[in-house]
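Posting for a labmate who doesn't have an account.
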Amino acid sequence: MNIYFWGLLVSLAVYLLIGNYAGRKVQGLDDYFVAGRRAPTLLIVGTLVASFLSTNAFLAETGFAYDGYAFLMLALVGVNTSGYVIGAVFFGRFVRRSRALTIPEFFAKRFDSRAMQVLAGITTVIGLTAYLLAVTQGGSILIADVAGIPTGVALILMWLGYMVFTLYSGSRGVVLTDTLMFLLFTLVSILALPYLFGEGGSWQSTLTALASYEAKPGIIAWHGLTGEGAYWASGREALIWALVLGVSWSLVLAVSPWQTSRYLMARSEHVVVRSACISGLVLAVLYVVLMFGGAAINLANPGISPSERVMVWAGMNMMPTLLGTLLISGIMAAALSSCSTFLSLIGFSVSHDILKAASRDDDTQSLRSSRIIMFAAATISLLLAYFQPPAVMWITYFAGTLFASSWGPVAFLSIWSRRITAPAAFTGMLVGFVVNIAAKLLDQAGMVSLPVYLDPFILGFVTNLVCLVVISRLTRPREAALRYFDELHQTPEEELDPAEVNKTLAWPLVVMVAGLAIAGLLVAFYAMPYAAALGRDFSPFSGEGLLSIGYGLSVSCVGLLAFWQVKRVYGRKRRRRSSSQQAAEARQ
């Protein structure tokens, strides 16, 4: 019962108190499923980032950086953070407009198909159960390391921690605790970075030491470790892997149920766009901190195994006690926030989308059914986590890409194509899901050997898209589906308020400027010192130079995209409305 474990218990008690407070406010399905649809920008940002950054980021991916792939991860993140803005402006704001309780219900309305709701619900349950498994295992590893207790006992403590308040408070509690957790782990991660660099003496000396680190040559090169004993034989293969996973995870951020369902809680469409801009920027900054820090820990202890324990070891050995306690509590917060989100969505999908146990006609019975189903789902996840050997990063990557290949094409075309039919959407989603799983299992079993450019995500995505196009040509969309499609593209009058539009436009500008600043800082504090440490002249066209500039520009580009879309959608329609009003006044 050391101070770090007491920190975990105190933080957990705070979350339970918040969950109890939120649970008392739950009066119906809208409160339980979508937090009453009144959440402001801060709460949506908090739940978006907290549900994405879990033990995978703070334990697995930071361990991946420690293993020698810090800046390869930044190549991946530079691509995937674009998914927030792309998803918000081309899918998320329409989902919010639908007033659905769940994303599978949105698909049912869009295609006038109960079968689509069931299928989307089933894929949600399977994918998020796998994700919940990975995060639960990550949290139990953290507790076991800190408290020195058996992993099985730590697993039960972790399970109880997220299950109790999620069952009682639903989305209202999840969004509040997510935001608190988000603020905690973001602040602590930034404060911890100087201590992670402490063994090198300074930023410059740490980079110099890592650049010439003989135990892991290339540990902070843009491609990480390559060659014999590494994950990839060459920098080219490593880059292809990062770009493929980056595109895949950009789709995950854009359309996955645990991200887009957050938009159902938003107070307005402007909150959707603002929160997407801020969330993408926060992730871009946090990953720079985590990847630099993970690599630097090598200088203090090069023998940490397994590498998922790197950040926990650093919190207990490289930082002042208070900050280390807060860091470990922050990592646990990230785990709990993701688990609570996944568990709530699993319960919602089973009760509302698959079994239809949740009905708007009887809120009391529906809430009871949802909680019973959620408890059963939590118990199943506990059993799976106990018997499945831990593999936090790779299970997470597998679970996330399932939604990229099965939901990605269907989600975007459901908004931007009138010709997509219910049979095409159903077949495309099913085929994309099955092909991804089958290809991954065959590859893992050694029955096939897939090159990096034929990732299971790509195979599932392409087959999904082919099914959508071919079957839509052979079938016709239903009249109800077409009417609903037209309704989705009618912007509500309240979204055209000039003051709200101007507030929203400010955030893409912030993102654009911040992206340029990130690029400049990475060049000045990474690419140039790295070249100097190797005795080279700096070139902006070197791998490190291109990575630094490209990472920042990717942030600026999504800010530019958001600015253009807000001006195009809300500014133009506002001008049209003003012209119509003036014409009406002139006629009068």
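Reply:
Got it, the structure tokens are right above this. The first helix runs from residue 3 to 24.
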